[in-house]
C-alpha cells in the first residue's frame, strides 16, 4: 500500500504518492439531472470550520521559504492532482521557478501562472504498472524530459522533488530533495517486517517466510491456518506491491496450488500469515528529531471480489475507532516510529497497517512513507504536509515540537472527515456521469430534487482504466466504517449510472 491493509494476514501497501490513477475533473451534471456543486464533488464534508494559521504553520512555512525561496524546483508525479498543493506551496514560498512533470495530460491552468508543465508519456493498466513505468522513466529520463529540464534549468541547480525509489541522490544531474533512502524503503518488503515488530516490542500474528515452492508453502499454510485460510504476500523482488496486487487470500490446498505460479513468477520469498476477519485500518506517524507524532487511526477500505481477491478501494476518516483500541494502535505506531529511527535513522512520515478484530489489533505491515487518506492538504493546507515531510527527511526541521505537530494535526483530522473510494470497472460504462445520493436509515437512494446529498457517485476515466468513485460528504456518515456503505453505493451505481459493477463484499466487523 501509497497504499493498505487487507482483512487479516499481510495487507497490500497503499499506493505511494504518485502511483495512484489521475483524477480527471468529474462531470458536472448528475444522473438523473442533478446539478452538482464544486463542494459536493470535493469528497469532504461541505461545511468545515475555518482553521487559521498557527505558530506551527508559521514555523513550517518559514522553513520552507528558507529552503526553497530563490531556487528552481522540479516536481514529478504520475498525476497532476497529487502535486498541485506542492507546486502551489513552492510558488508561494518564492521559488525562482517550478517545472511540473506529470504522466497525465495536465495544462498550466492546473497549477496557475508561472509554472512550466511537461508531459512524461507513460501508460499502464494498473497502479503498480503505472508506478513501475514512471519509475523507469525517471531512472533513465527520456530525451524529451532531459531537454525540458535543461531548458528550464540550464545550470542544473534545481531541486528535484520526486516520489520514486531511484538509485542515487541526483536525477538528470540535479539534486533530489526529500527522497526516500533505499534503507528506509527496504522495510516495505513484507518478508522483513517482523524485524520492525521485534525492535518495537509489539506483538504480531504468527508468520513464516518461505520460497514459492509447493513443498515449502503448502504445509506451512496448513499449519498457520486458524480456520479462515491464510494470506500470502510477495517480497519486493519485482517492485513494491500496492493495492493488493502482490497479496492473495488462500483458502485450502487447491487455492494454494493455483496461486503458486503467480508468486513464483514475481518473487523469491512469500510471507504467510493466518487470515484474520476484522476491519483493516492504518495509523500515520511522523518521526521528528525530538520525538514521534502519531495521528488517529483511519479505515482502509479493502473489499473482496467473488474469487476472494482483495480490492483496495481507498481510505476513510469517517470511522471512529473505539477509544481503547485507538490508544493501543497509536502506542504501537509510536513504538514502530522509534524502532525505525533506531534501525535505519528513519526520518519523516510512515504508517502502520493492520486489522482490528474482536481479539484486538494485529499489525501487518509498515509503509515507510506518508500514506494516503489524511486529507490534510484540504483541512490544513498551511501545514504543507508533503514539504514538511521532505524537510524532515533532509534533517531541515530540527526545532519542530512533535507534541505540537501531533496536537494540531489531530484537531484537523477530528474536525473534518473525508473519504475517497473507487473501484475499477470490468468494462466501459454506458456513459460517464455523476449522481447525488441520499442516506437514510442506513441505506442509499438517489437524492431527490434539491435534497442535500450525502455522497456523490461517479463514473470516470483514469490513467489505468475506467473507475467508479464514491465521495461521501455528509456528517451523518461519521462514526461507522465506510466499507459496507461503499459496497451498497456501488451496487446502486449499477442502476443509476448504468455501469458494470463487479460483485463485491465488505469485511465483517
TrEMBL record:
Residues 1-55 are annotated as: Disordered. Keywords: ATP-binding, Nucleotide-binding. SUPFAM superfamilies: Glutathione synthetase ATP-binding domain-like (SSF56059). Residues 194-396 form the ATP-grasp domain. The keyword Ribosomal protein does not apply. It comes from the Bacteria. GO terms for molecular function: ATP binding; metal ion binding. PROSITE patterns: ATP_GRASP (PS50975). Residues 36-45 have a biased composition (Polar residues). The keyword Transferase does not apply. This is ATP-grasp domain-containing protein.
Amino acid at each position: 500500500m501509497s497504499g493498505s491493509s487487507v482483512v487479516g494476514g499481510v495487507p497490500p501497501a497503499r499506493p505511494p504518492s504518485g502511483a495512484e490513477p489521475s483524477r480527471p475533473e468529474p462531470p458536472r451534471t448528475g444522473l438523473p439531472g442533478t446539478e452538482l456543486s464544486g463542494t459536493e464533488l470535493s469528497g469532504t464534508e461541505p461545511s468545515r470550520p475555518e482553521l487559521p494559521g498557527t505558530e506551527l504553520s508559521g514555523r513550517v512555512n518559514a522553513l520552507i521559504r528558507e529552503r526553497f525561496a530563490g531556487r528552481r524546483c522540479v516536481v514529478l508525479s504520475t498525476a497532476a492532482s497529487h502535486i498541485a498543493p506542492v507546486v502551489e506551496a513552492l510558488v508561494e514560498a518564492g521559488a525562482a521557478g517550478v517545472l511540473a512533470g506529470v504522466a497525465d495530460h495536465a495544462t498550466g491552468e492546473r497549477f496557475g501562472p508561472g509554472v512550466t508543465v511537461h508531459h512524461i508519456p507513460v501508460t499502464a493498466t494498473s497502479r503498480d504498472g503505472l508506478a513501475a513505468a514512471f519509475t523507469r522513466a525517471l531512472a533513465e529520463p527520456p530525451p524529451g524530459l532531459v531537454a525540458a529540464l535543461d531548458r528550464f534549468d540550464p545550470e542544473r541547480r534545481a531541486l528535484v522533488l520526486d516520489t520514486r525509489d531511484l538509485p542515487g541522490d541526483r536525477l538528470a544531474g540535479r539534486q533530489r530533495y526529500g527522497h526516500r533512502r533505499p534503507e528506509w524503503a527496504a522495510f516495505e518488503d513484507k518478508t522483513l517486517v517482523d524485524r520492525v515488530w521485534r525492535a518495537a516490542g509489539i506483538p504480531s500474528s504468527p508468520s513464516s517466510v518461505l520460497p514459492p515452492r509447493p513443498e515449502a508453502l503448502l504445509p506451512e499454510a496448513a499449519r498457520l491456518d486458524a480456520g479462515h485460510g491464510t494470506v500470502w504476500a510477495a517480497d519486493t523482488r519485482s517492485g513494491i506491491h500496492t493495492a493488493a496486487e502482490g497479496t492473495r487470500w488462500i483458502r485450502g490446498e487447491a487455492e494454494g496450488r493455483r496461486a503458486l505460479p503467480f508468486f513464483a513468477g514475481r518473487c523469491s520469498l512469500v510471507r504467510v500469515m493466518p487470515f484474520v476477519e476484522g476491519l483493516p485500518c492504518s495509523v500515520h506517524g511522523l518521526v521528528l528529531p525530538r520525538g514521534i507524532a502519531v495521528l488517529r487511526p483511519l479505515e482502509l477500505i479493502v473489499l473482496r471480489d467473488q474469487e476472494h481477491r482483495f480490492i483496495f478501494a481507498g481510505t476513510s476518516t469517517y470511522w471512529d475507532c473505539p477509544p481503547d483500541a485507538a490508544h493501543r494502535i497509536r502506542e504501537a505506531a509510536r513504538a514502530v516510529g522509534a524502532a525505525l529511527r533506531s534501525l535505519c535513522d528513519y526520518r519523516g512520515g510512515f504508517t502502520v497497517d493492520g486489522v482490528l478484530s474482536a481479539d484486538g489489533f494485529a499489525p501487518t505491515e509498515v509503509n515507510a512513507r506518508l500514506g494516503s487518506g489524511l486529507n490534510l492538504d484540504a483541512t490544513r493546507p498551511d501545514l504543507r504536509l508533503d514539504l514538511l515531510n521532505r524537510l524532515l527527511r533532509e534533517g531541515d526541521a530540527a526545532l519542530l515540537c512533535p507534541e505540537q505537530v501531533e496536537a494540531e494535526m489531530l484537531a484537523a483530522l477530528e474536525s473534518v472527515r473525508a473519504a475517497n473510494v473507487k473501484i475499477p470497472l470490468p468494462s466501459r460504462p454506458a456513459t460517464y456521469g455523476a449522481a447525488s445520493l441520499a442516506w437514510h436509515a442506513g441505506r442509499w437512494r438517489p437524492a431527490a430534487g434539491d435534497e442535500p446529498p450525502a455522497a456523490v457517485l461517479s463514473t470516470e476515466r483514469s490513467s489505468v482504466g475506467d473507475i467508479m468513485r464514491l465521495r461521501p460528504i455528509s456528517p451523518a456518515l461519521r462514526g461507522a466504517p465506510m466499507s459496507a456503505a461503499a459496497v451498497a453505493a456501488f451496487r446502486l451505481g449499477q442502476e443509476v449510472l448504468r455501469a458494470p459493477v463487479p460483485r463485491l463484499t465488505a469485511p465483517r466487523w
